[in-house]
Specification:
Blueprint: H1 2-11, H2 23-31, H3 35-41, H4 46-53, E1 57-60, H5 70-94, E2 100-105, H6 110-125, E3 130-135, E4 156-160, E5 177-182, H7 187-196, E6 201-206, E7 213-215, E8 219-225, E9 228-235, E10 244-249, E11 258-260, E12 270-274, H8 280-289, E13 295-299, E14 306-310, E15 316-320, E16 330-334, E17 340-345, E18 350-355, E19 361-366, H9 374-387, E20 392-397, H10 406-414, E21 419-425
Parallel strand pairs: 1-2, 2-3, 3-4, 4-5, 5-6, 6-10, 7-11, 10-12, 12-13, 13-15, 14-16, 15-17, 16-18, 17-19, 19-20, 20-21
Antiparallel strand pairs: 8-9
Helix pairs in contact: 2-4, 5-6
């Protein structure tokens, strides 16, 4: 029937070139849509329908949730679960390959938990490479099934409000990207994942405080090399492949939980610490000891008081603070290869940039709240004059109005050498 339709279209001068594309291109087009929307596109022709049936990217996102209509939400969830289950069952029966699965759910109860476990099992059996699971509401009581950790094909795992199992046999030999947004976590299991997996990127956002995690974990074990006993040696240095580490915490006053071996982390290029209890000494040690470090972001770390950053490899540095934290008193930076420097803090802080590239792009975001007086602008001018490193200035002033006109602010208060990018009064 489709052949007849195509012949008729050609006779009328109509050519469906999109449907003639190779199947992998049709898969790429459909993968940009929600799985249900991709299903609607499958009615275009039998070719599109066939491509939709075997698309290796599954994107399950319920479109409508509203806490005001709980009954409607329940019905919507039930239909959504039914659709996902039928889809996953088809992939299991036909053994279609699954390269990526993105699953977004409302709160997971005991009934739904069995369905999610089943879907994860099918994904693992069908050689899943990239998996994202996000729970929108409720607590992260749902824990990933143990079978997920037997996947030898999984390369990327992102979990939001999803717990780790208490125990699982670790076989994640391909996992390079791990992103966890958690409220509770079993630290032994987290340590096992970090130690076993060949991670390139590790991003952890944790509501509570961790106690003690080693990165990487160095164990002393007995090994045999080429049939001969090598005795006791250092092992489990998988984290030496790590290139990016991001840690965000909601407990800024708890002890720093990470025991980071700077010698083993020889490939770490990007480090971001957000709202975490890192100290001056730890920052100095990490900046100096991480020989490949190119990017360092310190965002709202309330325990920092006097930062000394010395790094030959560092190219990008961001020191960002909110108005609620005012402990930082002194910052000294010695980074001869620094290209980008962003500084967001109050003008009362002492800042010294000893070495950086001549063309280093330095931006200053001064923090200020009402009342903003002339004395504050005097402090701002003094700060800019003494530091003499910033090439651009971004002002976002939280006040009812600006007394000084923008042109006056540019030429008189700040001076002609600094470019004012944005002046805004809220």
């Amino acid at each position: 029937m489709e052949v007849v339709e195509n012949v008729a279209k050609k006779q009328r001068g109509i050519v469906d070139r999109i449907s003639e594309l190779p199947e992998f291109i049709l898969h790429n087009i459909l993968s940009m849509l929600d799985t249900k929307e991709a299903g609607r596109a499958s009615i275009l022709s039998k070719r599109w329908y066939g491509a939709w049936l075997s698309i290796p990217v599954l994107n399950f996102q319920p479109l409508y949730f509203s806490s005001e209509t709980e009954d409607d939400d329940t019905h919507t969830v039930e239909r959504f679960v039914e659709f996902v289950d039928k889809t996953m069952q088809r992939y299991f029966t036909q053994k279609y390959r699954i390269t990526k699965m993105n699953l977004i759910l409302p709160k997971v109860d005991e009934k739904l938990e069995s369905f999610v476990d089943k879907w994860v099992m099918i994904a693992v059996q069908n050689q899943i490479q990239r998996m994202e699971i996000q729970i929108i509401g409720g607590e992260d009581k749902y824990r990933l099934p143990e079978i997920l950790f037997s996947s030898k094909s999984l390369n990327y795992l992102k979990c939001c409000k999803v717990g780790l199992p208490y125990y699982a046999t670790m076989e994640l030999i391909s996992l390079e990207y791990l992103i966890l947004v958690l409220e509770t976590v079993d630290e032994d299991m987290l340590q096992e994942m970090i130690s076993f997996c060949p991670l390139v990127e590790l991003d952890i956002i944790y509501k509570n405080h961790l106690k003690n995690i080693s990165l990487p974990l160095i164990r002393k074990v007995n090994r045999e090399v080429e049939g001969r006993s090598s005795g006791t040696m250092q092992s489990s240095l998988q984290a030496s492949r790590l290139q990016k580490f991001v840690y965000r915490s909601c407990c800024p006053d708890s002890p720093w939980p990470w025991n980071m071996n700077v010698v083993a982390l020889k490939n770490l290029r990007k480090l971001e610490i957000d709202c975490a209890p890192v100290t001056d000494d730890i920052v100095s040690e990490l900046a100096y000891g991480l020989v490949a470090l190119e990017s360092l972001v310190l965002d709202t770390c309330s325990m920092l008081k006097c930062i000394k950053i010395s790094s030959i490899s560092l190219k990008e540095l961001q020191i960002l603070y909110s108005l609620n934290f005012n402990h930082l008193k002194n910052v000294v930076v010695d980074a001869p290869n620094l290209r980008e420097f962003s500084y967001k803090y109050k003008v009362e802080t002492s800042l010294s940039l000893i070495r950086a590239l001549d063309h280093c792009n330095s931006q200053f975001f001064p923090l200020a709240i009402s009342p903003i007086t002339n004395a504050w602008f005097v402090k701002l001018k003094k700060f800019l004059t003494e530091t003499n490193i910033f090439k651009s200035l971004v002002l976002n002033l939280v006040c009812t109005h600006l007394v000084v006109a923008e042109e006056q602010l540019r030429n008189v208060v700040i001076g002609p050498t600094i470019q004012t990018q944005r002046v805004k009064a809220a």
